[in-house]
Design goal:
alpha/beta; 260 residues; 2-enoyl-CoA Hydratase, Chain A, domain 1; Lyase 2-enoyl-coa Hydratase, Chain  A, domain 2; 16% strand; 10 strands
Length: 260
């Protein structure tokens, strides 16, 4: 399935993984409104066979941020609504139907970092670099970065990036929490797909709880978090698939955890 500037390909024996590819390599996959809306539409219309997704970028870069050539003159109200449109689209990535793995390479800059931070797992190859140049351009993050990025790396590091234009390379980015995996150049997509296939084998309700409940529990006071956790645990373990998996483990038909 290919739309303007974006493509979705279903992979796996049961088409359980959706590989979503940004196709604006001539613009370093910079995001414009059409592409942001297309991302939202893909997640709104995700086929029911899909259990996990990968987002990657065509060419030399994952995503170099906002397409400034399409930046329009807006008053405060228009700017507010424009930002909220981005929030709605990237919320569909973070709180959509399936877990999402980002395959990062080259530039992960500005809006590209906002998109990556909306994904649940980030795999970076050794060519990856991260930056938030909005401060030097007289603008501010508007796609959810002010909320999501500090949760990955902390407010102080994000402030430094925006005030000074600091660029993190792949190794330092992985060290501070930009990505959970660091792989050789050219292998991020393969690793991301491997992880997505593994995620797709999980019980759907468990994946849903990890996507939707866990981040909310993390923001709750402890007493509320404990209660939400108990409710989610009770719901997840009551699902027929969960009962079947526990039974298989108890009867020795399921693999045990092994040291990697």
């Amino acid at each position: 399935m290919t739309r303007k500037d974006i493509q979705m390909e279903l992979k796996g024996d049961s088409q359980e993984v959706a590989v979503i590819r940004l196709l604006r390599s001539h613009k370093r996959n910079a995001l414009n409104d059409g592409l942001v809306l297309a991302i939202r539409k893909l997640f709104d219309e995700m086929p029911t066979s899909v259990r996990a997704a990968v987002i990657e970028g065509e060419g030399e870069h994952f995503c170099a941020g906002l397409d400034l050539s399409e930046l329009k003159e807006r008053d405060a109200g228009q700017g507010l609504h424009h930002s909220r449109m981005w929030h709605d689209a990237l919320d569909r990535v973070q709180f959509g139907p399936v877990p999402v793995v980002a395959a990062l390479h080259g530039a992960v800059v500005g809006g590209g970092l906002e998109l990556a931070s909306a994904c649940h797992i980030r795999v970076a190859d050794e060519t990856t670099f991260y930056a938030l140049p909005e401060g030097s351009r007289g603008i501010f993050v508007g796609g959810g970065g002010a909320v999501r990025i500090p949760r990955l790396i902390g407010t102080a590091r994000m402030t430094d990036m925006m005030l000074t234009g600091r660029v993190y390379n792949a190794q330092d980015g992985e060290r501070i929490g930009m990505a959970q995996y660091l792989v050789p150049a050219g292998t991020a997509s393969a690793k991301a797909f491997e992880l997505a296939l593994r995620i797709a084998q999980n019980a759907p309700l468990t994946n849903y709880a990890l996507m939707h409940a866990l981040p909310r529990i993390a923001e709750q006071p402890s007493d509320q978090g404990f209660f939400t956790e108990a409710m989610m645990a009770a719901i997840a373990q009551s699902a027929p698939e969960a009962k079947a998996r526990v039974t298989a483990f108890l009867e020795g038909r399921a693999a045990k955890v092994q040291k990697s």
